């Protein structure tokens, strides 16, 4: 008599059923969250490869690859393989997000906050898959392409937050630095969002349309857009330097200062790549590196902001914010 409700529960909630039989270690949960971060970056870079090889319409419709075939055909050649391969990576991304959700749900104690973040990741992935289909159906409309990249950046935001939360507790957030420093961090976030958005305008008006056919471009002068993007980059760099200096003045925790240092290193590398690609007529390899750099810049900014507060651990087994050994293990 007592087994019937449990059986019904297992049918209705398979994750709860699995949780009753498997308990991942805290390190496993952290690794699952990091896998989602990694794949959210990989999908951006491979999406860039589709554009840079002119394979954006390698599969000329969606959700099928052609009107008659769900998968790539021999007639579509190299471009079809590249575009279809990128579509298949969406399933790998879903698997990584699914692993993060499963690990978070099965962990003991169960932290519903991590599970919710995992489902938000899944919703963004599904939304971006639909937007990617719209991009193909509209012939690589540059505004749709820009939205596709910005939504991918949103996914990176949530996966990075989830990864950080696996190393924290669920207590109320407590500031680790004075209020003016936190306000400076939000200025840094706003400037970086403008920088990334300006980058999509540079891409949308630039030479890499994503296909060899006649593709509509944004009606902006590419050189002027690149200069606006460069100015935005200098503003972000100035704010990052200010953050690094202020954190030293207020004697912020060591790991917080390390995050600010990492951001400066990534920004300098990204700036160097940006200027080289501008003066060398935007070669494909450097554009790909710049797209990877964009992801790393945003992750670094998010990590700086998250390091300015801490959430105390209410349960045993959840590492604290400044545990260097845990940071190194992931």
Give your account of this protein's structure:
The structure is a single chain. The chain is mainly alpha-helical and 330 residues long. It is 71% helix and 1% strand. It has helices at 3-12, 14-19, 26-52, 77-106, 112-137, 142-165, 179-205, 222-249, 254-279, 284-306, 324-329, and strands at residues 174-175, 309-310. It has a two-stranded antiparallel sheet. The longest helix is centred in the N-terminal third of the chain and has 30 residues, at 77-106. It is flat, with a radius of gyration of 22 Å. The protein starts with a helix and ends with a helix.
Radius of gyration: 22 Å
For the biggest sheet, the summary is: 2 strands, antiparallel
| Spatial strand arrangement across the major sheet | 1-2
Structural class of the secondary structure composition? mainly alpha
Q: What oligomeric assembly is this protein in? A: single chain
Number of strands: 2
Global mean pLDDT: 86
Q: List low-pLDDT spans.
A: 1-10, 316-330
Share of helical residues: over 70%
Please work out how many helical segments DSSP would assign: 11
Determine the N-to-C terminus distance: 45 Å
Shape: flat
Order of helices and strands: HHHHHHEHHHHEH
User: Strand portion, in percent?
Assistant: under 5%
């Amino acid at each position: 008599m007592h087994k019937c409700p449990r059986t019904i529960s297992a049918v209705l909630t398979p994750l709860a059923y699995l949780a009753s039989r498997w308990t991942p270690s805290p390190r496993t949960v952290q690794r699952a969250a990091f896998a989602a971060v990694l794949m959210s970056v990989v999908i951006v870079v491979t999406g860039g490869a589709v554009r840079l090889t002119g394979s954006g319409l390698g599969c000329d419709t969606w959700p099928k690859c052609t009107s008659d075939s769900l998968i790539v055909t021999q007639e579509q050649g190299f471009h079809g393989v590249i575009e279809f391969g990128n579509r298949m990576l969406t399933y790998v991304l879903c698997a990584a997000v699914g692993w993060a959700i499963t690990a978070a749900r099965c962990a003991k104690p169960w932290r519903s906050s991590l599970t919710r973040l995992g489902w938000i990741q899944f919703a963004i992935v599904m939304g971006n898959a639909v937007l990617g289909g719209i991009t193909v159906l509209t012939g690589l409309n540059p505004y749709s392409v820009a939205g596709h990249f910005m939504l991918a950046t949103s996914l990176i935001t949530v996966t990075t937050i989830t990864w950080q939360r696996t190393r924290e507790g669920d207590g109320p957030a407590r500031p680790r630095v004075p209020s003016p420093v936190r306000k400076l961090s939000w200025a840094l976030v706003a400037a970086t969002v403008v920088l990334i958005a300006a980058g999509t305008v540079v891409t949308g008006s630039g030479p890499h349309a994503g296909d060899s056919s006649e593709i509509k471009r944004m009606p902006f002068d590419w050189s002027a857009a690149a200069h606006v993007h460069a100015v935005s980059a200098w503003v972000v760099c100035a704010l990052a330097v200010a953050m690094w200096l202020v954190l030293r003045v207020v004697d912020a925790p060591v790991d917080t200062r390390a995050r600010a240092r990492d951001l400066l290193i990534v920004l300098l590398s990204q700036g160097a790549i940006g200027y080289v690609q501008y003066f060398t007529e935007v070669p494909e390899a450097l554009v790909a590196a710049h797209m990877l750099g964009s992801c790393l810049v945003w992750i670094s900014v998010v990590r700086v902001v998250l390091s300015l507060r801490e959430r105390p651990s209410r349960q045993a087994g959840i590492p604290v914010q400044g545990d260097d050994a845990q940071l190194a293990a992931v």
